[in-house]
Amino acid sequence: MDYNNVKKAGIIHKIVCHEVKPRIKHNATYLSIAEFVENRVKELLNDPSGSSGMAFPCGISVNDCVAHDTPSKNDPRVFVNGDVVKIDFGVHVKGSIVDAAFTSIVGDPLSIEDSNAVNASKAALKMAISKAKPGCHLLELGKSIQIFVENFVENYAENDNGVKPPPKPPKPPKVVWDICGHQIGLWRVHLPGGKAVPNVGNVWNPDPSHPSNAKGYDYKMEAGEYYAIEVYTSTGAGRALPKDGYTYKDVSHFEFYQDPRHGPLKQYKTLPFCRRWLDSNQSIKLRKAISTKKVEMSPELYDSPGSRVAQFEHTIYITADGCQVMA
């Protein structure tokens, strides 16, 4: 990826984040937020050629929805007070990508557990970034994130919130362990074969017998790499799973395995896109591409019903002796 293009994309991402936050309020529609983000990115990029734009659709995942939700064209859903809202979007300049996210609580939090989940995610991300540098073991970084989050209430909540914990200690948040940060490449939000940053210690799965508990997963960061580091925390089970029996109609995010180069969907190359962006002809072509297994579907992911999930994410660049936050 081109450093200067990543830097430009990051500046635009930060501007749009700042502008959209006050719009996330009671009775605002999911669709109005998504369209504001996507239109504002396009406006700031000011690229008539279309070689720069959204790196993926604006994700709006609320409460127990962990990721991959974005509104449909006529989506009627609105925010209500107490909602825990995750806004996750990417910007690219000629294929050089930033991917970052934040969480807002609409109105007042419904519980101190909700507040702790949000604050723990934000603070754990800051801690993780402070450790990112060449030679950093990614599984050790995941372990640090897990320990930080699981001890957040006892060690950090009083200082961060400015209030004393209640007489009955609140339930500590959990990390969402089966979703992780990722290495970014040119035209690739998730670099194929790239490294990943887990939210848990030395395994992807808490079960030590799981196949992912292997030394081969203990990669190190190297100078010149770009990562999206994201920390998900939850008041629930700490899972990120699709609904049973989901179909095409339940999925909003799609991504070509290889650059299509030709046809009505070629503009998206290998970047994720959503049905809301497509006209009728493109929708037909998408169904055909799915049937021929040229497109990956990314369904919405959920934790346990009624749980509240928070997410904060930054894109970083690994320098010679540390890292730089790009978005």
TrEMBL record:
Named cofactor requirement(s): Mn(2+); Fe(2+); Co(2+)
Molecular function GO labels: initiator methionyl aminopeptidase activity; metal ion binding; metalloexopeptidase activity
Pfam families in the record: Peptidase_M24 (PF00557)
A GO CC term assigned to this protein in UniProt: cytoplasm
Transmembrane segments: none
The Peptidase M24 domain, residue ranges: 5-319
Catalytic activity of the protein: Release of N-terminal amino acids, preferentially methionine, from peptides and arylamides
UniProt keyword list: Aminopeptidase, Hydrolase, Metal-binding, Protease
GO biological process per UniProt: proteolysis
Protein name as it appears in the record: Peptidase M24 domain-containing protein
